[in-house]
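G., the chain you wanted modeled:
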Amino acid sequence: MSTQFYFNWRDGELEPYQGSVVQEFPLQLIVNGREIATLIGSPHDLRFLVAGFLRLQGFVRSLADFKLFSVCEDFGAANIQIIGELPERLKPVLTSGCGTGISFSMPDSIADSALLSSRRYHAAHIFTLMDELAKRADNYRTHGGIHSAAVGRGAELLLYAEDLGRHNTLDRIAGEALFKNIELSGTMLVTSGRVSTEMVAKAALLGVGLIASRTSPTDMAVTLCRQSGICLAGYVRGGKFTIYSHAEMIEPYPDSARIEGITGIILAGGASRRMGSNKALLKVGDTTLIENVYRTLATLFHEVVIITDTPEEYAFLPCRTAKDIYPKFGAMAGLHAGLAASATERVFVTGCDMPYLNADLIRRLCSMPKQGDALVPVNRQGLREPLHALYATSIITEVRRAIENDERSILDLLDRIDTKLVTPEAFADIDGAEASFCNINTPEEYDKLL
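Predicted structure as tokens:
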């Protein structure tokens, strides 16, 4: 089981931790040249799984019935030849878990989808729906062995189902929604059982945006949720849960009022040549520079996006990342990528190395009337601060044109677009406002900061 970064929710914050989940292994079963099923199970002793499956289906009685027995773990396939002939028409076969379908194959529309949803969910609603699920699951408590599931929107539970098979509960919900004409897109699915790939596939087909379970998911379920843009939570109990995919869809700092219509963009694509190492990951106390920047922006905006060509370095932060479309082109490329990644009309752009970002100043800038293409503060020295500024996403064409013309200066770009400047007098009443523009570029500046 590989170790990756996941996130624990507790006390209103998402805390990163490194862990692993149980592995789920799909094995294509080919008998006498015919694909008859896909077995989904644990990856150990696969020859026993295959032989036992064929024995219980009545295809073989002893090892002498096998002419060829080959299991290739690298390709996830078992190629078997038996003495007898397979029936021309095979009966449906249960291939994994309780109540699952005939076989599992990923719908192309899901497997090819890497779309990241702009949906946001509140932790309190997850706990509310899970508590409501527990209240309704009388049979689960009384008899045992009965799985339950429900879908809800916000804190409202819409549909509830229970069945011997956890996968069947989702089928029941899908059917009831069809009869009652209930739209499931963007809903939250809460379940009592382990989350497997088949449940994720079905949820994705229904447009479910979040899956939460009292237990754990499998590794393939985690991968599939990442591919299909579904937030996946496990071990929901005691006011805590673990996020395995798309942690950015959980609204952090729930008591903080968010600024609408603006995305927070952190540029982390610089080469840090003067520093000699990635300055975003330099620590101030127990946290990195970029973590401090993220935390400030996460209390202000519904979404924060890190622009970086090395997203794996920032897996410990519960936010979306996006790569430069024009690599090696500096801050201009970062601005372009931030504009392209945003789903809002405006973005607030800042660097990854700004230790004193002032939330009050950022709110002040964002509250100013919408006008022009850019809103840029000016420091006491009369210099513009383009990496502590607001930009309209509509300027993306102009930014792309500048890049294609090998123009790297954002300051020159500001001269060509409709830029509104904010003088120091406009924020003189905010304590520490001027320090918000400070960034760290050299080892000497870092030593001074420490």
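The radius of gyration is 26 Å.

Shout if anything looks off.
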